[in-house]
Amino acid sequence: MSLSVFWFLPTHGDGHYLGTDEGARPVDHGYLQQIAQAADRLGFSGVLIPTGRSCEDAWLVAASLIPVTQRLRFLVALRPGVISPTQAARQAATLDRLSNGRTLFNLVTGGDPEELAGDGVFLDHRERYEESAEFTRVWRRVLEGETVDYEGKHVHVRGARLMFKPVQQPRPPLWFGGSSDVAQDLAAEQVDVYLTWGEPPALVKEKIETVRAKAAAQGRTVRFGIRLHVIVRETNEEAWQAAERLISHLDDATIARAQQAFARTDSVGQQRMASLHGGRRDKLEISPNLWAGVGLVRGGAGTALVGDGETVAARMQEYADLGIETFILSGYPHLEEAYRVGELLFPHLDLNVPEIPQPGKISAHGEAVAHGFAPQKVSQS
Fold first, then answer.
1. Is beta strand 324-328 parallel, antiparallel or unpaired with respect to 4-8?
2. Neighbours of 193 (CB within 10 A)
3. Mean pLDDT of 9-35
4. Comparing 11 with 371, which gets the higher pLDDT?
5. Ordered alpha helix ranges (H), the chain
6. Residue from 6, 9, 14, 10 nearest 72 by CA
7. Is the pLDDT of residue 381 over 50?
């Protein structure tokens, strides 16, 4: 099976070391453009753009990089509770048209109560997933061309519709990651690609089997992807040395503060990440070549595959054998590591490199009038 490999745009910062400003670098548009263009040339399928108050806005970053890339796809976040599903559908269709079908959307419910409160979201974990399910039902149907009336507990729309459809039909794909039971129920009902963070293969296998069974019970199938960091070098010894160097500026106080901050989240996925290392730096290889050092201070994806190209490719194949089709990778600093992955890892993979999409035909239409009704064509007699 050919694998799709994505890269990551570090809109919250980048550098040579974790947990310190030592070796950090400015992340401006020029730098993000360098990373995106490198990924585009090297054969990555797309880029994940993160979301949250510590990040540049994912939608604006994606839009700004469309003209300077050719094949790269942009995985951007949908935020239920922060935006209406109808407005989000219009924005999604617009971004899909402007990029000629190079958009993917990642449903993010959020897990940090402090950040959620700042965005005006005061729902608990279960309520957020209820709202996300209602949001997604409307978002999907509107993008697929329906006129939607929907009255739920959290979402209420009447006559919601699009005038201009997206390039990808019936709509752009929807991605999602969540480890709780309610999250997996949502994935089974509505998403196209279910994402997991980089847990050991046995734990990933359990999640895949659970989501696959829940989807089958609803007459659906779901594809699977995984989010990991990667440290690849010419030799295994060099790779492990690079891993230790990445956390060489961390002290115990910094780790403790980070773990305390992660503990306030109600994200089951974050809790599972933290449990892999327990905040300890002496037992970080939690599975062969799977290293949890990133998660000592970084929220979200906290594990990295470490080794030479052949070794990392073999570990990726273990996940692929479980049903993983897409790998979303990252490394520090992201520009240099994109090239290392392209040069040292890609030759060992059966890589699915997307074609450069060709412009589609756009139908001519006059200016919309009367609150969104298109003018009627005049027949010639």
1. parallel
2. 20
3. 95
4. 11
5. 29-42, 58-65, 85-98, 113-118, 125-143, 181-190, 201-217, 236-246, 252-263, 268-277, 309-322, 334-340
6. 6
7. no
